[in-house]
């Protein structure tokens, strides 16, 4: 795909007016206060992943409404703690996967907590009690007519609690917790950076769940097409949809985030269009840097991005 969004010169200054409900902060205070009423109960059980140089644990903690969330905890076997810890969030449709998929961070001397996405992946974390069948798409519109019932209220709450679970691990330095992810994972990391003050840094790649209305207007790629299709069917509820999405828009979380952030964007990305990423980046309230990949689509920097992140974190945490 060729360039399709705004020219780079305009993207660099693209800072649209934020549209958010008046009770945005009250909504999230109430949501997270309700979650905090439930004991976190972090559990870390040794897991034999056949990885001699890496300690692997099956992790569980209480997320939204006390519902148990699955994760993997990995740490280098021969490095003494307390370690900086990356809380890793997953792209749309995926789950925590297998431990051997997450060796980058322990190889670099970090711990990593790989957080399952409720209702996605292979079903290790059900979305709702009694509903243990995962799904690959359709979650973007699940409950979208009511912010109290919207799927991402539950998922973002899990993600905030995941930071608490990482901080509770005896091998983790709670002052050096990094949130990270790409696509949906980047959108989740962006939201947590705006909601949790214990986050030390954020690695936000090609964030999904950001500047929703523009995304639905300029791309017909999935998953944003799910929203467009829903609005096409529910013609009389379009403003109701976008009012709900205002509580979950990455632009609004970015404006509240203060931890240093390293973003990345791909200028030919039709899945998470560049203007939606720049909208959040240009509103981001904390120190920030941006890596631009001019000729790439939703793969972004791919294998070129981790060395940039490792160097950035090394300098930040030194």
Automatic annotation (TrEMBL):
Q: Which residues form the active site?
A: 183, 269, 298
Show the Gene3D superfamilies listed in the entry: alpha/beta hydrolase
SUPFAM superfamilies reported in the protein's UniProt record: alpha/beta-Hydrolases (SSF53474)
Please report the name of this protein according to its UniProt entry: Cephalosporin-C deacetylase
Recorded GO molecular functions are:
carboxylic ester hydrolase activity
Q: For the Acetyl xylan esterase domain, which residue ranges apply?
A: 1-315
- Which segments cross the bilayer? none
**Organism of derivation:** Micromonospora inositola
Which InterPro entries would you find in this protein's record?
A: AB_hydrolase_fold, AXE1_dom, CE7
Sorted alphabetically, the Gene Ontology BP terms of this entry are: polysaccharide metabolic process
